[in-house]
């Protein structure tokens, strides 16, 4: 069973380390963040930001993206990798936004997860960061790894990990918490070699490999 007092200490330490944690994707509105998150699979945020700067200057709306040919869109997103599938996913999502929501991004998680190719992780990330609607905790590979190492969840699936994490802090902190775990996973608690010596969470972390 999770020790909630110990978990609180880890959450508070994370808050001191990353008080204003935000995403590293650059966006001006929910639509841009949604497309950026789709493109970010298996790609760095820096690379996605390079691609979207060009993409959104040419195509600021879903309708503009749909006006591109498949080949044009593939060429534009090519640097993010898996470009054929990503171009298809972006196009399908834009089509649904236009058909069902008049080109706007919906405002609830329930509507969001009905968009093609959009799961709870993307929905929670976009809703929380672009709309200030905190309906879940986005569990990506970093959130999964860091929360497990910190002993905040022993679950294996993103859904169960999310449910464990949601109990740890109030709803208004859910988006911050996910962002903070992502930053910590990228900068310190890396997959292959966590830098436990330099980690501000080490005093409260049960991870057995810390030096
Ligand atoms: S002490 Fe090590 S395992 Fe624990 S959070 Fe920090 S880097 Fe990760």
TrEMBL record:
Q: How is the cofactor bound?
A: Binds 1 [4Fe-4S] cluster.
Q: Which keywords accompany this UniProt record?
A: 4Fe-4S, DNA damage, DNA repair, DNA-binding, Endonuclease, Glycosidase, Hydrolase, Iron, Iron-sulfur, Lyase, Metal-binding, Nuclease
Q: Which CDD domains does this entry report, sorted A to Z?
A: ENDO3c
Domain HhH-GPD: residue ranges: 39-187
Which InterPro entries is this protein grouped with?
DNA_glycosylase, HhH-GPD_domain, HhH_base_excis_C, HhH_motif, Nth
A biological process (GO) of this protein is: base-excision repair, AP site formation
Reaction catalysis annotation: 2'-deoxyribonucleotide-(2'-deoxyribose 5'-phosphate)-2'-deoxyribonucleotide-DNA = a 3'-end 2'-deoxyribonucleotide-(2,3-dehydro-2,3-deoxyribose 5'-phosphate)-DNA + a 5'-end 5'-phospho-2'-deoxyribonucleoside-DNA + H(+)
Q: Does the keyword Coiled coil apply?
A: no
Q: Where does [4Fe-4S] cluster bind?
A: 189, 196, 199, 205
Give a short account of what the protein does: DNA repair enzyme that has both DNA N-glycosylase activity and AP-lyase activity. The DNA N-glycosylase activity releases various damaged pyrimidines from DNA by cleaving the N-glycosidic bond, leaving an AP (apurinic/apyrimidinic) site. The AP-lyase activity cleaves the phosphodiester bond 3' to the AP site by a beta-elimination, leaving a 3'-terminal unsaturated sugar and a product with a terminal 5'-phosphate.
Alphabetized NCBIfam families for the sequence = nth
Name under which the protein is recorded: Endonuclease III
Q: Which organism was this protein described from?
A: Desulfacinum hydrothermale DSM 13146
């Amino acid at each position: 069973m999770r020790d909630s007092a110990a978990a609180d200490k880890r959450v508070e330490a994370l808050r001191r380390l990353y008080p204003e944690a935000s995403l590293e994707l650059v966006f001006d509105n929910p639509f841009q963040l949604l497309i950026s998150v789709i493109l970010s699979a298996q790609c760095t945020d820096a690379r996605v930001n390079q691609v979207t700067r060009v993409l959104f200057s040419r195509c600021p709306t879903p309708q503009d993206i749909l006006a591109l040919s498949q080949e044009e869109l593939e060429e534009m997103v090519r640097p993010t990798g898996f470009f054929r599938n990503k171009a298809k996913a972006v196009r399908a999502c834009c089509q649904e936004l236009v058909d069902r929501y008049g080109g706007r991004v919906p405002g609830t998680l329930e509507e969001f997860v009905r968009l093609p190719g959009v799961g709870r992780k993307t929905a929670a990330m976009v809703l929380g960061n672009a709309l200030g609607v905190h309906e879940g905790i986005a569990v990506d590979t970093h959130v999964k790894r860091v929360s497990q190492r910190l002993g905040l969840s022993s679950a294996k699936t993103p859904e169960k990990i999310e449910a464990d994490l949601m109990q740890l802090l109030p709803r208004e902190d859910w988006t911050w918490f996910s962002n903070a775990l992502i930053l910590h996973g990228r900068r310190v608690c890396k997959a292959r070699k966590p830098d436990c010596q330099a980690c501000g969470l080490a005093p409260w972390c049960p991870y057995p490999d810390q030096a």
